[in-house]
Structures are given as C-alpha cells and as structure tokens.
Amino acid sequence: MKFTDGYWMIRKGYEVQNPADVRDIVTDGSSMTVFAATKRIERKGDTLNGTLLKATYSSPMPNVIRVTLNHHKGRVKKGPEFEIGTQPTEVQISEQEEAVVLQSGKLSVRVGRGKGWDVGFHYDGTRLTGSNYRGPGYIKDPQEKPYFREQLELGVGEYVYGLGERFTPFVKNGQVVDIWNEDGGTSSEQAYKNVPFYLSSKGYGVFVNHPERVSYEIASENVSKVQFSVEGETLEYFIIGGKDPKEVLDNYTKLTGKPALPPAWTFGLWLTTSFTTDYDEATVNHFVDGMAERDLPLSVFHFDCFWMKEYQWCDFEWDKDMFPDPEGMLRRLKEKGLKICAWINPYIAEKSILFDEGMENGYLVKTADGSVWQWDMWQAGMALVDFTNPDAVAWYQSKLATLIDQGVDCFKTDFGERIPTDVVYYDGSDPYKMHNYYTHLYNKAVFELLEQRLGKNEAALFARSATAGGQQFPIHWGGDCSSTYESMAESLRGGLSLGLSGFGFWSHDISGFENTATPDVYKRWVQFGLLSSHSRLHGSSSYRVPWLFDEEAVDVVRVFTKLKCSLMPYLYNSAVESSVRGLPMMRAMLLEFPDDPTTHALDRQYMFGESLLVAPIFNEEGSVQYYVPEGRWTNLLTGDVVEGGRWHKENHTFMTLPVLVKPNSLIAFGREDSRPDYDYADGVQLHLFELEDGAAAKSVVSNTAGEVELTVSVKHEGGKLSILSEGAGKSWNLVLRGISEVSGIDGGSSEQGSQGIIITPAASAGAVTVTL
C-alpha cells in the first residue's frame, strides 16, 4: 500500500508521523525499548500534545531479533496469532554514548541516540539492513483508519525472494505484493499460499508477524527500500540472520515450524481421476491396470471431487450410484500395492447431510446476527466449518476417521482461500486475521488426525492453500495451472518462491490442470514433474494417463518414474534434511551458490537436493539454455561432462534433459525402480562424480523412518581414494563414474561396469583404499 506521492510528498488526505527524536532507551537485561517523538523536541513545551512512538527489541532465539513498533498498545488484541517458537537465548546489551546495541548470537541491532532515527542490523560485523529517516511510520488515512509501516534498506544489487508461492517474476524487486490468500490460478499476481517472509540475497530474512493482510512495496514506492505495512496500532517483525541463506531458512523454520517428514510412498507417482471426468470403479481399474500392463510404477491413486455426489460436498459419503462397494473397492486397490488419496474441502453444502448437524451444534461459521454464513459460489448454499471451535474440529475429524477406516491413506485438502471477513467465529477471532489463517487451522486438523490414526511420518496432505507455519503439514501443490509451457514455467517460479519461504515439499499438476496438453507439453512436463519433490498426474476435464497422448509418452513416464524410484536413497535423505533444516528439496540455485551472482535471478532451473541440477525444457523444439556454476558437472542421464562457470545451450529428445551432478558428489542409487518405499541401504550403489584432488564427498542413506543406516565418505588425495563406511552392515558398492581402470585396491575388489569401475568392499572392511 502506497502512502506517498513520489519521494517528497504524502498522498492527499493521509497523515504520516515518523520517529524524529529519540527521547529515551530503557533496557531490562533481555530487551530494549526506544521512545521516540515524532517531532524535534527543543524545549519542554514541545513534549505536549504530541505523539510518542515505541520500538521494542528482543530475541526469541539466537540470531533472531524481534522488533515491535507501536503507537497505542492498550488496544484489545484479537487472535489468531502465528505460533512462534522460542529457545533459551543469551542477549547482550551494551549502552554507549552514541547508541545502544542489543546482540543475539552473531546478530545485533544498533539504535542511535538523539535526533533523527538510525537503526542498523548487523550479522558478524556486517551491516545487513537498517531503518532510518522516515522509515517507520504511524499513518492515518482520510477516514482516520490507522496503519503502521516500516521501510528497510535495500542495497545496491540486493534481491528479494519468497513471500509465499508467487507466480510473478521470481525476483520480487519492483513488485507490489499483498499477503492475502485468493483462488486466482497460477497466471496472476494472486496467490494461494501467502507468507509474510522474504529472503534477501545479502543473506538475511524478514518475517512480519501478522496473519492479516500485509502490504509490501518492494523497491516500488521507494526504490531503495522494502516497505511493509499493516492496519492498526502495532507492527511486529523479525530480522533473521545466518551465515548463509540456508541457515537463515533453518532459523526461520525454527521460529515458525519445521516441515514434517512425508512418508516414503508419497514420493512415487500419483494418478488421479481428474476433476470433472466421469468415473466409477471400472474406470479406476482400467487406469490402474493399464499402468501396470505398461510397466508404469504407480504409488498413489487419488479420487477427485466426484467420489461424493454432486451438490453434497462435503458429506464424506461415497456416491453409491458410482461406488456401491467403497470398502471393497479400496481393499482391492490396496491389494495392488496402492495408497489411496481422497479429495476434501472445508465447506459444507446445504444439500449435505452434515449441514443441519453442523448448524444445530454451532460447528459452522456464523454471521453477526447468529445465522450460518452461506453463499452459492462453488457449492450451492455453501457453509464453512468453524475450526476455532474444538468440538467442530473433533466433528470434522470424525468424518475423516471413517474414511481412514475404509482405507483412505491421505487427503487432498483443496480450497481454504475463499474465506469471508464479515463473519463471527466461535472463539471471537478477528475475521480479518482469519482470512489467511483459516487454512492453517483446516490443514492442521486434517494432518493431526492422520498422525493420530496412522502414526508419525505416515501423515500426508495434498494441500493448495497455506500461510506461515503451513510448512508443518506437507505436501503442497501449485494449484490450477494451464496446459502450456508458459504455465509450466510460472509453476516452477511459484515452487521456487515457496521453497524460499520455508516450505520443504512441493508439487504441481503434471501437464497442467486446465484444458489438455499437446503430447510434447505432456512429455516435457512429465520430465519436470518426476524431478520434483512430489509427482502427480492430474487435470480438469480430461484423463491424464500417458497412452491417451501417444506411445512415446508412455515410455517417458516409465523412464522418469523408474529414475525417481531408483534415486530414492538420495532423495529421501534430502527429504530428511528438509524436515530437520527447513530447506526445500527443490532449491533455487542461489540457495546452493549464494556467492555466484549469476545464480541470483535464475528461475528456469533448480537444484534437486544439494547435488543435482535440473533444467526443464519449456518449448516444443527441445532446446534449453541453462547456467552451470564452477566445476566439472556430469549429466546423470547421458554421462556427458559439462564445464561450469558458463551458460550452455543444448537440444534434447524427450528421454533426456539437463540433469547434472555437482562435482565432488556421491549419489546413492537404490536397487528398486518400481516403488519409492523400500530398504534404501540394502544393495545401495553409490556413484562418485568428479572428485577433485584434495576434496571429499559423503553420502548418507536413511531408512523410511528417517533414521541413518549407512554413511560412506570418500577422500581423494595424491591419486588415492580413501573410502570409509559406517552403518548396519548391509551390502553396498561404489561406482567411480567415468573412471575405466584403477592401479590397485586394498580392502575390497573391483570390476568393470558400464558407467565406470565398481568397487565392492570386503565384508569385514571398514576402510577401502583405491589407487588410481
């Protein structure tokens, strides 16, 4: 929201007061509060009839500083509020003649004394950003409505990322962003997942602790500042430091919650009925059996909306006309090795048998006069479950529990964005704040039920909407995209932005949701989709099985599904890291290469885990141009070596694309290529790529519970490879990619393989030495 008219003038009808004169700084050992007048105080009489703004600085955990700006703090506060994590923190406050400094870990804030406003944030002695002249502002609009804003410095060449899943340009500089969940598809500035957190290329993050609308002006209203504002008398935000962007995300997700570790089976291929298509058990079996007959590994089958009868969403009852024996059908599907997902949303249509039950018991959101809030958009007479009511939560969960008992393993938690603000909640929550936060309560209720019924690390959603903290309930997908290359690219931008907002796991509708893709778009999107965290074939009005496109599409699905299954030892360890550190599996290049400025604006390629570079192809010609950081990289699919530190342009068939392995990497391949969940450590094959002299590589193999089973490290020194292993004693071997012969081996044996020498350690050996 803009408050100024150019750089000098204030918009007509607005009044802006800025801190102009620091009158006092009060410390209490763990925080400091700054009192600042909004005009210069030259004599005692100037203190009368004026405004005093307050800024309090504290720290909830090391390397994080909380900033609370307020005008009148005596106002009644209504929830909801984000859940903020805390840790024991040693805060140091030093009072000097010119300034007072509060330090937490390596992060500090310095507030200057005296005239003017001079606040700087530093990490390990380096200035990150600051708030200065005309930065904070207490504002009244022409209707006397109050706002608070902050303006933080934006340095020369500094880029801003994140703010949720945004499909606009990846670098947010120059954009106006409102944190307000909406159902706008992937081709607009609206977003399903709005997160008031941004990450800077300078290596710090800023989280605005407000679940309501937060309005950002990013190098827009003031081209050298990031401005954010909220309605009200208070503005609170956190500055988050770290030694690099990865550590910043780790600290941010310590603050707002770590992603849960999804079950291993969720990483396989999902197939759905699509949205408005006709289907019954025979249709489902035709698809499932057709996949098996064509040797296409399938892990999850999803029933979209019309598993329930039309006009009755949600009543959580199978349409008996189409599914007369749902329990038997689900049992038969599970006997084929499949997991089952069912579509739900948080709305109760008036024709649902649950409407009267919810209305009579007070489980539905109400209007000011006590009526049930309803409208006809999406579902006729649609009402909204009130998740602020514990009894309503238990009621909703009980309906889902019945489905779990029938054999459903997970839920697609659709919608959650169309939330009204002229309503009354059971617990008195502010409906304006609840607009974004509603989805958090919705997904939390479903996720916690799955954890209770199925066990920890067995819960999974397929969620569309979210806000800060929603990363705790994976998985999320990108919403309604079109079946075009442009929409494929915008989907990737959204996923990379979400990943830089603390979300570890992300998916998208392979080949697009709206319309039906051409065969070339389908095949290129299959490549991208199966090199994503989670992979789902889904659409709107047509089926998405590959043989409906062409026979080559069948081959492409087979090759890339099997590739993903075989990569699961590497991928699942990356997933474990995501759950521990809050890092995305699909990483913007800058996250792995923050010191390479060429990576800072890249949004058509990504790192899949820390070692694989993926550059999807976005055109029918099969051409791709991508950037490779320094070093000798190896194409995982072709074996070609690519020199880094430069751009490359290539052409690819539908069976290949740039999937490059970073030098000095040890990639774990599993013995299975037909399912994603198996014993990753048993028979694992570790592929060593371009290990430079003096360098080391390590691979960790975890089991499906996220526990480490095998660790192998390799060091190259003076023409010798020293290999050390630690683990459960299961068989494994090592492939020296691109190396055709060795001079000797101690502690194991070697043989020639198609991709390089294969080293097999002796059963009793804890160490192997290979002479090159």
Strand order of the largest sheet: 11-4-5-6-7-22-19-18-16
Let me know the average pLDDT: 97
Annotation field: number of helices: 11
Radius of gyration: 28 Å
Low-confidence stretches: none
Number of strands: 50
The proportion of residues forming helix, as a percent range, comes to 10-25%
- Beta-strand content: 25-35%
Query: Pairing-aware structural class of the strands and helices?
Result: alpha+beta
Largest sheet: 9 strands, antiparallel
Distance between the termini: 63 Å
Tell me, briefly, the overall form.
globular
What this model shows, in words?
There is one protein chain. With 772 residues, this protein is α+β, with helices and mostly antiparallel strands. Helix content is 19%, strand content 31%. It has eleven helices and 50 strands. Strands 11-4-5-6-7-22-19-18-16 form a nine-stranded antiparallel β-sheet. A six-stranded antiparallel β-sheet has the order 3-14-15-21-20-17, with no helix packed on it. β6 and β7 form a beta hairpin. The longest helix is centred in the middle third of the chain and has 24 residues, at 431-454. The protein is globular and about 90 Å long.
List keywords for this structure.
alpha+beta, 9-stranded antiparallel beta sheet, 6-stranded antiparallel beta sheet, 772 residues
In short:
The protein is an alpha+beta fold and 772 residues long. Helices cover 19% and strands 31% of the residues. Strands 11-4-5-6-7-22-19-18-16 form a nine-stranded antiparallel β-sheet. Strands 3-14-15-21-20-17 form a six-stranded antiparallel β-sheet, with no helix packed on it. Strands 28-25-24-23-32-31 form a six-stranded parallel β-sheet.
